[in-house]
Specification:
The chain has a domain at about 265-460: Alpha-Beta Plaits (2-Layer Sandwich), CATH 3.30.70.20. With about 500 residues, it is of the alpha+beta class. Helices cover about 30% and strands about 15% of the residues. It has 20 helices and 16 strands.
Length: about 500
């Protein structure tokens, strides 16, 4: 058992209001420089929709992530031979049209235009070329437009959904859709790290954050092709790649990342988890139906004496173990089994998890009274405004049962709290729901409180980073250290993936 520590995140999609405050907070801090105008390290997508860059989920187009081969995996985008032949040409890179051409407006025309009968206008100009352009796309161009045939019908997650389901979706989607915020997943098996020929990308030993060394980067851009989530970007001004760094300077000072701190809906949770690195290859190469379960099995119980013993033996500081025991991510992921990874079939083992949205319950009015059809509460999942298959394509590699289990638990908590606070649901129905989902009243109360009433400290269990230990180890012998502060057990700074 190779116990390591990993900073992990969880987003509760039921709480996201699509305000983009997180995106602006990140933009103002990290990507306000020349060459980064089109970069959104944090972006919020409307689903169903094509996302940013356009159709990033279509790996037939972009060849991101891994594919299984005889008990292991290989990169879809490159290998040693293809790396040599494509080193000066990346055939699967997104183009600027897949992102959007960033623009500003020629405001000086408003002030310098000669007197005349016509009102002067500030025409849009490209931030790349400085030339006039027609604006045809933006980073959230399909925001709130999931009901449109132009955007929603091009969502790759709809490929195996029947035409009848699509028709119902598009009729009702004018009223209901949901948002998916995305940042770098800081994966356990990052394709970007494994693909980089220059070794600029590495997984930080003490906390698992994936970083990019700008001094080493040679702009081969394999990381952009290999990342299936398209969260590595090329700065056309500096000639270097850039990506989300999870605001590690903030973490080192005890603060959560900027997008977490600014979140209006308080959907974001951060903590550290312990995992077994010996299982990375076996998990990444497993069959699609087992990927989610095996990834969860990799996350270890921080209260288990054997796990604690192996963690300390492997150099994990006890303060990190204590932080893992208080981690809200661990509770949602393992204790309550509510959180799911985004597109596990990419096989990067992402460490950002999502609670799928429990979309509004269909109801009707009888004699002036709104009826939620409580007797058929679980049956409403089959009448969901977004098909269960669509949610499964997003979070469980197509396994509808795993999504159903999560949604039934969320419904059970809702039933429990409604019966307690409104008293219009029978105790027998609540008991039946709890028995079916395996929840207890105490668990329902804990889930409710951590979802609806969490304090700042409960949402963000920022672990002690203990950088003094890591710095001392790196300054000593960086190729043989076993970091007292974190995970240790690998040689040198980079953890390169499989």
């Amino acid at each position: 058992m190779d116990v390591r520590a990993q900073v992990s995140m969880m987003f509760h999609l039921d709480k996201c209001i699509g305000c983009h405050t997180c995106s602006i907070a990140c933009k103002n801090i990290w990507t306000d420089r020349q060459g980064t105008e089109y970069m959104w390290w944090n972006n919020v997508e409307t689903k169903p929709g094509t996302g940013y860059p356009t159709k990033w989920e279509d790996q037939e187009k972009y060849k991101g992530g891994w594919e299984p081969i005889s008990n292991s995996v290989k990169l879809k985008a490159t290998d040693k031979l293809r790396g040599l032949t494509n080193i000066f040409h990346q055939p699967h890179l997104p183009t600027i049209d897949d992102y959007y051409e960033p623009w500003t407006y020629k405001y000086e025309d408003l002030f310098n235009a000669p007197a005349g009968d016509d009102q002067p206008t500030a025409r849009p100009i490209s931030l790349i070329t400085g030339e006039h352009i027609d604006i045809n796309a933006g980073p959230n161009w399909d925001d709130d437009l999931s009901g449109s045939g132009i955007y929603a019908r091009n969502d790759p997650n709809l490929d195996d959904i029947t035409e009848a389901e699509k028709q119902v979706l598009f009729e009702i989607e004018r009223l209901v859709f949901f948002y998916v915020p995305r940042i770098c997943n800081h994966c356990l098996n990052p394709a970007c790290v494994a693909s980089c020929p220059s070794g600029a990308l590495y997984k930080r030993g003490e906390d698992g954050i994936v970083l990019l060394d700008q001094n080493t980067c040679r702009a081969w851009r394999f990381c952009i092709s290999a990342c299936p989530y398209k969260k590595s970007y090329y700065n056309w001004s500096t000639g270097k790649s850039e990506k989300c760094i999870l605001c590690y300077p903030r973490l080192e000072s005890g603060q959560p990342p900027a997008c977490f701190h600014s979140c209006v809906g308080r959907i974001r949770y951060l903590g550290i988890v312990l995992y077994d690195a010996d299982k990375i290859e076996a998990t990444a190469s497993a069959s699609e139906e087992d990927l989610v379960d095996l990834q969860k099995e990799m996350v270890l119980d921080p209260f288990d004496p054997e796990v604690i013993k192996q963690a300390e033996k492997n150099g994990v500081h006890f303060s990190i173990i204590e932080a893992a025991q208080k981690s809200p991510v661990y509770k949602f992921l393992k204790v309550w089994n509510l959180a799911l990874p985004l597109h596990p079939e990419f096989r990067t083992l992402p460490m950002l998890f999502y609670i799928p949205p429990l979309l509004p319950v269909l109801g009707h009015v009888d004699n002036g009274i709104y009826n939620i059809d409580a007797e058929g509460y679980f049956g409403n999942l089959d009448k969901a405004r977004v098909p269960m298959k669509y949610m499964a394509n997003l979070f469980t590699a197509g396994d509808e049962e795993k999504v159903r289990n999560v949604l039934e638990k969320l419904l059970a908590v809702r039933l429990y709290k409604r019966a307690e606070q409104v008293n219009d649901i029978s105790p027998d129905l609540v008991k039946e729901a709890l028995e079916k989902t395996g929840l207890t009243p105490e668990m329902c109360e804990d889930i409710y409180r951590l979802t609806a009433l969490p304090t700042y400290e409960e949402r963000f269990m920022v672990p002690p980073m203990l950088r003094e230990y890591a710095a001392e180890a790196i300054m000593g012998d960086p190729y043989s250290f076993k970091a007292e502060a974190g995970v240790g057990g690998f040689k040198g700074r980079p953890e390169r993936g499989l």
